[in-house]
Design a protein that fits this description.
814 residues; alpha+beta; eight-stranded antiparallel beta sheet; four-stranded mixed beta sheet; 15 strands; globular; EC 2.7.7.59; [protein-PII] uridylyltransferase activity
Length: 814
């Protein structure tokens, strides 16, 4: 509707015709990609030109201009229309009426519109004040009206941009950096924003703006293809969701993959990550060049005045054979011969990482095109340079990415291709497989002083998840690959065997420490047999911590570290020839004995709370870090203890980290049987409840007057579940050869308040006794192990154990 409230005949017929043509174009399916985007932009141009012509009449000095993404002709199905009505300052009322005749039909169709009405002077002034406006005007494209007006604005805006580039480009760089801090890196996110995340479409547009400044240019190879792929994914996302969204949510990835004709969502993510990696690397190189040019411009006038105006060659400082530093980058020496020096890429990379400098794009491309392949096995220098690169800490990441961008890593280690850009659909992991491997090496470099063979630690860190590119257990596949890679890069047979063992068992310590009973001699012996030697145990301990720290914040804590350290201490003793202690013969501590006697005397549970802390290993003088609270409970032996205790803790919002239950031998003369529960707990929110309150609720839970199930159900009802990804169903298994004293039942399920209570009640119903429980939570996943026996204290027969596991799984699924 116009400002006068009267519709024209053109407005009545135009939108419906455009809408039908637009729908046909988007549902045709055969013109996807750039052809469809160009066709959609052309169709929209024709429609808007018609609206402009019908409304302009004899009005002169006015033009309709597409800016931003529409100006580039990159219209996705649900893209905004970015429009500028440009005028020379003529009849204001007529220009306002013309604007209404264009904007309202767009709104009537439900299309998003970003619009403005300005003179060229106003447009330039606004661009000078708002960087985003200026970036949009760099892509200004004429649609209808006075072509000279549009051309004049384009020329002026480009001239302004080039003149102001030394001031505006740092502003643009900071804008990109701030967006990256908010949105993260597109190449690693499971639910990325295709436009705003680092390496996305915004960054690709920023690179176009840098090129338009004539100050620097982005590496062109692969950049246009990467941009096209991201636009194709956004098109498919718009069609799949029917919304103007740029976030590739998990629940929509399969549909988007199908829209693009891809195999599955993992293939889709891998393509997105590869494209984002190209854009991110191009951004790094470009902004580095911008900084170099700006520094050069600032320094050169002063140098010329000091040195009489002569042209000075850039200083080159040697770093290694064939490698020099020049102007803040690592470049090849003039005498370097990549075609005769196959170790040169690794030597240059190691030198760059050690110096904390980037590898120049020209150097990497020269090595990628001209270097001779390394012989098999590698010479000692090549292996040493790889280890130096991996041990250089944080600078390793940028140098590794430069080599990978030009395909050098896959040529050095062909098995790398299977893990490159491979997504990890696990909320605990924050990186793709390949970046996680490099992050693990970075973390491992911090522990090289703790081990006698730092070279094996660093290479094991690089290879520990290399099997994730193959079907089956990645540790089993990785063992084979690691042995082959170790031999290829020049390790002898003994070292290759150690690396294979580290890769095969890189999860052994953390899984055993958090899911098994460390007091069970069989647990410690099984780890000792798998590890084989003190040297391998030392390496595996460091690798375990580096792997967990590189995984994400949910994978490591002081508590987990203390459990792993305890296991390592016990295994080390066995490897030294000592027999593991049998907890059945261990005398109770004075506090345990006091609690047990009080429980017998009162006929009710008694408990004690004690904080557990540990100073940071690397900073003994630092503040102690909480490991949780030790909860000791002594209860006269009776049925229902596990569900009662776990239920009370769930009601009080206490998270159980470890749980041990055992019968306690009482002093001579004291009659009765006491169960001792030694648990470690932590408050989910706020502070811990008082011990007296816990004890009162535990008494009520044991005598049946506290309805735990009802309390937990009320709490669940008060906080409805949010929509999200449907969790996989629980899985309950019997661990083979887990213990000689008990049957180990392992539960994997979605973590939830009261989960341990439900498990305890189900095991109680199955008439089995729980000796100990080992609780581990990674992200939203709980992995709990329960050591159970029959009523007489012996392990369950195999068929009975399977039946208990099956019944427990059915209960949890129900």
């Amino acid at each position: 509707m116009t400002s006068t409230g009267v519709r024209t005949e053109a407005e009545d017929s135009g939108p419906s015709g455009y809408a039908a043509a637009r729908l046909h174009l988007l549902t045709e399916g055969v013109r996807s990609g750039p052809p469809r985007r160009a066709a959609l932009a052309g169709l929209t141009d024709d429609w808007l030109a018609g609206l402009f012509g019908a409304g302009a009449g004899g009005l002169r000095g006015v033009a309709l201009v597409a800016v931003g993404g529409y100006g580039r002709g990159e219209l996705s199905p649900r893209s905004d229309l970015d429009l500028l009505l440009l005028h020379d300052g003529g009849d204001a009322a007529a220009i306002a009426a013309l604007a209404d005749r264009i904007w309202y039909p767009v709104w009537d169709l439900g299309l998003a519109l970003d619009h403005s009405v300005r003179t060229p002077a106003e447009a330039r002034r606004t661009a000078g004040e708002d960087l985003k406006v200026q970036l949009g005007l760099l892509d200004a494209r004429h649609i209808a009206g006075d072509l000279g007006l549009t051309a004049g604005l384009r020329t002026a805006v480009l001239a302004d941009w080039r003149n102001q580039a030394p001031r505006r480009l740092p502003e643009l760089q900071e804008l990109c950096a701030e967006r990256a801090r908010r949105q993260g890196e597109l190449q690693y996110l499971l639910e990325p924003d295709l436009k705003e995340a680092r390496g996305g479409l915004r960054d690709a547009t920023a690179l176009r703006a840098v090129a338009a400044s004539w100050l620097a240019d982005a590496p062109r190879e692969g950049l246009d293809d990467a941009r096209r792929r991201l636009l194709d994914v956004r098109d498919a996302l718009h069609l799949a969701t029917g919304r103007a969204t740029d976030r590739l949510a998990l629940q929509e990835q399969d549909q988007v993959a199908a829209e693009l004709g891809l195999l599955d969502a993992d293939t889709l993510l891998r393509q997105v990550y590869e494209a984002a990696r190209v854009v991110s690397y191009a951004s790094d190189v470009t902004w580095r060049e911008v900084g170099r040019v700006l520094r050069s411009r600032a320094v050169r006038p002063r140098l010329r005045s000091m040195l009489g105006g002569g042209k000075q060659a850039a200083e080159r400082s040697p770093l290694a054979e064939g490698v020099v530093e020049q102007d803040g980058e690592v470049v090849l020496a003039r005498a370097a011969r990549p075609d005769r020096d196959p170790v040169l890429p690794l030597r240059a990379a190691a030198a760059a990482a050690q110096a904390g400098l980037p590898l120049s794009l020209h150097a990497v491309r020269r090595m990628a095109t001209g270097v001779r392949p390394l012989p098999t096995p590698w010479p000692a220098e090549a292996r040493e340079q790889l280890v130096t690169l991996l041990g250089s800490g944080r600078p390793t990441v940028e140098v590794w990415e430069a080599l990978e961008a030009e395909g050098l890593i896959s040529r050095l280690i062909p098995d790398w291709e299977r893990v490159r850009c491979r997504p990890q659909r696990n909320a605990v992991h924050v990186w793709t497989v390949d970046r996680h491997l490099i992050e693990t090496a970075v973390r491992a470099s911090e522990f090289t002083r703790r081990v006698s063979r730092p070279d094996l630690l660093l290479v094991a860190a690089l290879l520990h998840d290399i099997g994730k590119g193959w079907p089956g257990d990645h540790s089993v596949a990785g063992e084979i690959i690691a042995r082959d890679v170790a031999s290829r890069i020049g390790f002898d047979r003994a070292d290759a065997a150690v690396l294979a063992t580290l890769v095969r068992h890189h999860l052994l310590l953390i899984e055993t420490a958090t899911r098994r009973d460390l007091d069970d001699p069989a647990t410690v012996r099984s780890v000792a047999e798998a590890v084989g030697s003190q040297g391998t145990l030392e390496l595996l301990h460091a690798l375990t911590e580096a792997d967990a720290l590189a995984t994400g914040p949910a994978a490591w804590s002081s508590w987990r570290g203390s459990l792993v350290a305890d296991l390592v201490r016990r295994v080390s003793a066995v490897l030294a020839g000592d027999a593991p202690a049998d907890p059945e013969t261990a005398a109770p501590t004075a506090e345990q004995e006091r609690l047990a006697i009080e429980a017998i005397a009162t006929g009710s549970p008694v408990l004690a709370l004690r904080a557990q802390t540990e100073a940071p290993a690397e900073e003994p003088s630092g503040e102690p870090e909480p490991l949780g609270v030790e909860l000791l409970i002594a209860v006269p032996d009776q049925p229902g203890v596990l569900p009662a205790v776990s239920g009370v803790l769930a009601v009080h919002r206490l998270t159980v980290r470890t749980a041990e239950l055992r019968s306690l031998r009482l002093p001579d003369g004291v009659e009765g049987s006491v169960l001792l529960l030694d648990w470690r707990v932590a408050a989910e929110y706020g502070s811990l409840p008082q011990a007296a309150r816990l004890r009162a609720d535990l008494v009520r839970a044991l005598d049946g007057t506290l309805d735990i199930a009802g309390r937990l159900a009320e709490r669940d009802a008060a906080y409805p579940r949010r929509r999200g990804v449907v969790a996989p169903p629980p899985r309950v298994t019997v661990a083979s050869a887990g213990s000689r004293r008990a049957t180990v039942i392992e539960v994997r399920a979605q973590d939830a308040p009261g989960l341990l209570f439900r498990i305890g009640r189900a095991l109680e119903d199955a008439a089995v006794r729980v000796r100990s429980a080992h609780v581990s939570t990674l992200g939203a996943n709980a992995v709990d192990a329960f050591y159970v026996t029959g009523p007489e204290g012996a392990p369950l027969p195999a068929d009975e154990a399977v039946a208990v596991a099956r019944k427990l799984e059915e209960t949890l699924r129900g």
